[in-house]
Fold these 4 entries.
Entry 1:
Amino acid sequence: MDDTRKRKPERSSEQVGNKKAKKQWQTPKKNFSSAPSINPGDAGIWATCDMHKEGLCTVELRDIFNEYASLIYGNATGSDAAIAHDDPLASEDIEAEIKKEVQGIRDSKVEELFTPVKIDVQCVLFFKTREPVEPVSFVHRICSDAINKATAKKTRHLKRLTPMTRMGKAAEKSLEEVAKAVLAPVFHRDGVPAQKFAIRTTIRNNHAMKRDDIIKRVADLVGEPHTVDLKNYDQLILVDVYRNILGMSIVGSDFEKLKRFNVAEIYEPTPTKGNFEDDLTAKMSPIIPTSHQFDR
């Protein structure tokens, strides 16, 4: 048989290797490490909510926080910036309109004051804050308005808010660093009079840090001439530990009056034993006819 047909040139091993290499090339995976996280030095607000309602509560809180931020800080939030460009006296030519639209887009990209951070603890949320938001006074305003009936209830799933002035790692060294930064403006400024204080801790999903150790160390850092008074304190130091995260803040003497910042309790108080019994008695009391009802 005449072998006159053309044969395909044989590929070298190097060419084969190159082809395989091209087939194996893949698009690099996206890096998701930029997801919001809590870092030492951050400030923010813890929130607790109904079980399995973390997502819904996050949406509720974002709306409430942004509303109060606009009310308290005004155009510092960036939310009023776009409104400032809607000048009715401005030129209405095409170029001016384009500039307005571009500026509006830029304003919408202003960094948010409140950034939700995913926490793998059931019924617990965290919002990282940035200046000019001061977590303690911000939460105090929300709860004060609630208890004074200045605002109607706007959440279904929120329980308690806990402001954190400074965050750190849940470790002994970090506790000391955070405490020094938080305590100094309240207890250690020149001319500060002696104050009575108490310390309240919350620890979840952490077995390394002990409540008594935290209280003793923080009390030592407060130091003299300040004294401990668990009931009639001037300042209450809050220390919250969630897993490997620690936060601290200082709230005032009206903390109990504001239901420990429990928003749900402010709007819908749990009946006390005495009130509950009075209500129950009123509902069960028989109707006693007056004397004229017997008159014929």
Entry 2:
Amino acid sequence: MDPKKRKKKVLLMGKSGSGKSSMRSIIFTNYLAKDVRKLGATIDVDHSHAKFMGNLTLNLWDCGGQDGFMDSYLSTQRMHIFSDVSILIYVFDIESREVGRDLDTYGAVISALKEHSPTAFVFGLIHKMDLIQMEHRTRLYEERSKIIRARSEGFEVETFASSIWDQSLYKAWAGIVHKMIPNLAFIEKFLQSFAEKAGAEEVVLFERSTFLMVTGHITPYGELNPNKDRFERMSSILKTFKHSIAKNTKTTPASAGFNEFQLKTPQFNIFLIPFTDNTYLYCVVPPGEAHFNILVLNAQLARDQIRRHVESESHADNGQTENSAHSHA
């Protein structure tokens, strides 16, 4: 793969106060939801980079949503902001009292994106859903999603209901990042083969720093689990666990980690280990020591195999970079 394609420009946009910087800080810089109140308003564009899955780098452009900044993005900075975009994430405040105006601004952003990055993926996050009474959430979310799609000028927009106070934020961002994973087909085929050999009911790959679900393989038996949001819940639980480790070891949440996590019950066993430099492998197997020991052995063998693949990819990328340098010399 062209090394340049490993860096993905991600625009994070929406009106001021919609929650853009809060969600970015929780996912990528290990903030707790209760701490985001300390964050100030974003001034112009806040640039940050997040390493994700080996050579993939997310180039995050958190764009301030004040009217003056939005006008500038759509006029004098139009080409600079909207060129070479891989993903646009537009955040809508579900409690906004200016829905029509919000949609007009979104429409103008979509027009600029269509002009300069027509192949970009577009996601709409309908945010702060925790403020809506439970019985009204589904209806309001579906109504707002329909309106957003109608204003999207042909882009196939994926929408998510989200809140910083529950696992919905992890579901939304996992869905977004899933679009950018290189060699996703290889990874999914690999996990399916691993699950069959290890006798696992569920095998999931989590990104190591964010704990976002990358992808996984769920067997028909695993599909019977009634908790459909269990992986997003695991993301939230494991992130909280990292904070506990950091607090008790006097380190930072970013540097805190663990070598292995086991949970054995009469109904199932869970096993979580660092897999590659950027991922954790999460597995669910039937109860019993035999199943568990087979899983551990297969996980160790699979880790060596996937690392060799990642290293060969990295060497290929370096070779392309060197060839490119020689061709420009």
Entry 3:
Amino acid sequence: MGAQVQDLPDELLVQILGSVPKLDLKSARLTCIRWGNVGSKWLFRRVYFAPREATMQTFTNIATHPVFGRNLKALIYDRRLFLDDLLDFESYRQHYDYEITRKSETMVDFPGDEAHHENVALSLAQYKQFIVDQRDIFEGSKDFEVLSVGLRMLPNIVKIVCCDTVSDRKKYRSIFDHAKDDHEWYENRSTQEFGLAIKPRVWYKHMAPIEGKWSVLGFENFFRAVSLHCPSIKELQIGSETSKIPANMFGRLSAEDAQHAYLVAHRLTSLKLGVSLKSLTFDDDVPRLVSCLNRILNEARQLRTISFIGLGGFLFQDRHWPHLSSLELGDVYIEGKRLLEITRTHKDRLREVRLWYTTLHR
């Protein structure tokens, strides 16, 4: 009798199942106990977390699973929030209508009848409940507690991504060829949780920030939990090509939480920052946020890969990373001589420089 697939050693079976699409892998794992154990290595490679009850419960279930937990390598932190400034009817109606138009990709004439008014009111009522649930989570530091418990069960997490959009990167793949992650499954599942309500908003909102400032709710707890419970972290991404984090979030970290950020930076070999300087207002403590960013970069002495999006060359001032081999600058305004200085300073190890939407000036 010829050799059968069951005769293959686990090492080969792992490689075979690793090439199977995720949906087919779920079916393949039901073949037998051996396939179930071997296939689990590929079923969950990353886990999502968001300050929402359903997502936190899923995170806990995966993190505490005796098989899935030990194979997880990445944590994706979904930083979208429900916003208090959408709680009055008129503001909510405008965004409700905007979302419907955006999804249809065509202009929509909204009736002024009672039925449309009722739909908006029903959606707003659900949105208000999401706000209440979100407040309970943050006021009780439940997000920090769940993150801490889960991360203690995930010793092999090496990559952390903090973002406010998880599904639109595929639209930009013709521009950003390296943006290959597909989060569509998570996005679809999350959207089902929101039902009629407007989804939690990204950092870039179509309205003025709350009281002229951007919320840092959850951001501090995220840094604190990661610094305490992710000793193996090597890669950190905050923001992305298509959605940058407001720079003033760094200026609004407390002294204690900033220290946690510095501890995280000390362990990193890869750092990607997508930061928007346009979100700054006259009320922001610019020197403090610049100091925080500078301290993070000073602590990150082991960096081999750096990607700065939306940040200027001032962050390279008198700074040298001895192991830097890959540098990416995107959507920045930088002096040509400063860029030349950067490449010369790191010429011993620097092997790749990637520029896009970069303006050079004298």
Entry 4:
Amino acid sequence: MTGVGSDLDMSQGGSVDPDQKKEVIGSSSNFWIWSRDAGWDLTHPSSLEAEPLRSRLLLDCEISNVAIDPAKTALLIIDMQNFLMCKALRVDTAVPAMLQAQNASVHYGIPAARQTDIQIIWLNWGLTDRDLQTMPPAMLRVFGWQANSEAVDYGISARIAAANGRNDFISCGEISRGTGLGADLGKVVLEDGTSVDAGRVLMKDAWNARLHGPLAAAYEEGRRAYRPDVLIHKNRNSGLWDPSSGATEYLRKEGIRTLLFAGANIDQCVMGTLQDALSAGFDIILLKDGCATDSPNYAQQSAEFNCCRNLGFLSTCKALAHAGSRCQR
């Protein structure tokens, strides 16, 4: 294996040893080390000559396993808010999937991050009136209108199954919800019979924009952790769309290199943030059991498939917990 350090030559795409047992890809400031036996080393050492990190986490993933440095890693939990998850606001069948993802994070992902001192970042919608004034019409349409169809995917899959060569389009049209971004939801009655003012849709500090149930309790507990939890608001599907956003600036300031993703919806806000993170040079690991969506199942399957290799790595909250139990501190 040739010495690389700060003089890493990536002109041929990487540095390879004669026995094909290890390969380095990337640049002198951002490189991974692949080995046939161990998979990918994402610990970002200062040089190839550096000793393997004692406290690194060995995380099982689909296709290839990875090693990560907890000090350079953050768990992003995206949009697990009352607006998306509370049964008083959601009457559709998506709620069980959301609660399963919540349970995986609460029982496995979050405790594992705490145990290994991985930074936990709660990345939530939290709008201001100024945000509403500059919100693109595409985003306003998503929250303010709905397809005039009761089919789970507007009839797209049924049309594909019955395809006969014609280029017919679904023509159900759309109708206004009347409760788009910033709209007042009024009072709602919770399962225990209490009434709360849900507030304006996804506005910062409104009840509907707060973390849901046990996740709120987990955040409060995490504020007292050795590495305190951080809550950051966003104003688009992606929390990293703007290089000057709070999330982007925080990650850069703290020297975070590797991101673990959980949250909802996996195919919208989670993947939007994930893809912007990938383009910005972060390592990507999706924790599939900590994610959910109210889209059809194939939307989650597509996200998981692409994170197996095309966009990063695919693992689980349970695997993170197992890695934590093996970690040397």
